[in-house]
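Task: sequence in, structure out. Protein: VOC domain-containing protein.
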Amino acid sequence: MTCHLDALCFDANDPARLARFWAGLLNWEMADDPQGGIALLPSDDTGFRLRFLPSQTQKTGPNWTHFDLTSTSPEDQQNTVAKALELGGRHLDIGQGPDAAHVVLADPEGNEFDVIEPGNNFLADCGFIGALASDGSQEVGYFWSAALDWPLVWDQDQETAIRSPHGGPKITWGGPPLAPKTGKERLHFDLAPPVDGDQQAEVDRLVSLGATRVDIGQGDVSWVVMADPDGHEFCVLTPRRPLTNPSGR
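Result:
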C-alpha cells in the first residue's frame, strides 16, 4: 500500500484563531494536535485533516494552493461569503475583475480561497470543499497521482487533477507559468505510510518518483521533510492509521 494524505498543514501566527475560522466555515470539529497546534477533523468525505501549526513567519506572497468551495445556488454562495466575512475573513483582489462569477476571499491570516459559483461542471460531484487548486506543473500532477495512488481525473493543456477513489476534493495543478518559489511554503501536505508500513521504504519510493529530501532546519524529528518535483515541501510521518470519516472509509 502507498502512503495516504493525512493532513493539509497551515503555518499560523495564531493557530487558535485560524482554526476557529475554518472550523466555523467548514463545520468541522477542533482537536488538539500532537505537535502543539490545533487540528480540524472532517465531518464529510474530505478524507484528510487540517492542521494549524505555530509559526512566527509572516505571509509574504500567494500560497501555492487554495480551497475552492462549492455553492448550490446564488443564495448559497452569498451565504458562504457572508459567513466567511462574519468569522473574520475579507474580500481579496487578485485581478479577477468585477465580472468574475467566483468570489475571492482571504482568511484572517491572508490565506486565499475561492467561493465558486453554482453550476460549475468540473466540481459538480464534489462536496463543499470542491478542490485544492494549486500552482504546479503537469509533471507534479503525475508525481502526486503516483505518490498517493489517486487517478488522474483531468490531463489537458498541461493542466492536471487527481482525486481519491473514495471521493472528496480534487487536487488540481494549473500548469505554466509557475510562480517563483520564495521560501518555505505556508501550506504543506503530511503523508503517512499505512499503519503496518515502513517510513524509510516510503521515502525511498517517493524519491524514485522524483521527490527530494530537504533540510528546512527541522532538526532531529520523527518525520521526513521532502519536496515534490516543483519544490513544494511535504512531510512523511511515521506510520499511522488512515482517518476514518462518517461514511465509514
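Residues 202 and 216 are 20 Å apart (CA to CA).
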